[in-house]
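pinging the channel bc i need a second pair of eyes. not urgent but kinda urgent?? the chain im working w is below, pasted from the shared doc
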Amino acid sequence: MRRDFHAWASLLCALFLLGTGSLAHAAPDFPRVDAIQRGLPDSPNTYAASRRWFESYPFKERVFLQLSLILVGQYNGLADGVFGRNTFNALRQFQREADRHADGVLSADEEDLLVRKAAAVYRLFGFEKTTDAATGLTFFAPLALTTETSSTRRGSSWKSRSGQLEIESLSIPDAEISYLDLYSRLIAENRHRRVTYSTVGDRFFVVSGMDGEQNFYVKIDRASGRSVGFSLSWTAQVDTIGKRLAVFMASMASVSDAAPERYTRDGGTANPAAPSAGGKREPGSGSGFFVSDTGLVVTNHHVITGCRSIEVPGHGRATVITSDADKDLAAIRVRPAAPVVPAQLADSRPALGQPVIVAGFPLPESLGANLLISSGIVSGETGIGGAPHQFSVSASIHPGNSGGPVLDNAGHVVGVAFAKLNELAILAETGGATGSGIGFVVDTETLLDFLVPFDKQVAHSKPAGDQGQQSAVARAKKFTVQVICR
């Protein structure tokens, strides 16, 4: 693990080293995670042992550890590679939440767990290296969270569709206002604006606080003849996301151009479920459906588990954004070859007895890569073992249907197909009775909860009556896709 960790660290830290230089002494005073506020009892010996372990790593790898702790929500300072109480608390809190011994010294297994969790958040936010032509700023833009871009007087703007999150790049010539005068202007307060943290050095400054109902965070670097950087603002509804974004982006922002490499593998085709050598699965396929016009596809967790690569025919290779084994849901992203029409998701589960349609690509070896439709009714209000977040249907669900949409007659997605009862198992259990025709579905309420981090990208259903199955099928054809695991 340690050797693999070293490789990840050296590649990810390339941008940091080229652009931000030393960030010592700059730790924005964000409110701490509640568990960290409570504190963890420790002794001088525990703290010293954690420090020796942390400082045994080269500088770049210490920075990488802190970046990973930022992404998982445990570290609230700029990544500077320097050990202190903030780093110590973050390491111990990460261990505690993982149900490990909280001594601040990560084992190889804990290091691997931290990297995997951080990588999942990295993909969830959709970070991609972005060089803003207007300012020359190179930074990680959370493209899964921001859907609207525009030009501003000072640079460029990236906004979430709901308006709860906004990033702006800034470039201001010294002839207009000097670096230090700009800092003085930004720390000025009035009855609407309150500064909660600020620090200034020769190379950069940070200012954060509240402006009315909005949180804000500004990081400005001193460049040749100008001040360049970014501002981030967010509402209380996305406070957890805003804090992580601010500190991670500030740690990695650069006015030079370099290629970040880690938290993704194989040039951006990362897969958090990819196993180590010897654990690869056989090629297979499932189904999925577009939930946004930006290329976000929902499928089952078990469809993408263990894949070396994932393909959506007609749209190319896919990147796993996030996955939840308990819900058996996954979100993957493609770059659509043409504009796509996303599914509309129902806000509530269907009623017992309500007609439903299952769309997908079952049994491709026998039936070919063709979209097939089956219909039935909601036959049960719970799922396997009485699971309340699932329901059962009488419509046919076969291998290859997993991850496909289940629709009502208005064409709205009411769930995600994921399993059919194993009839041999039922025969053994019951001594003769079978469960033929019973399929299981993850309900739309669970799906909507899973998709919360994607802000308003997801299309919700609008009131509509029964349009008939033919109309619903015509809708399904527009957004249902095959998902191939290799």
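so The chain has two domains: 2-252, 268-486. and The first strand starts at residue 127 and ends at 131. — does that match what u expected or am i reading it wrong
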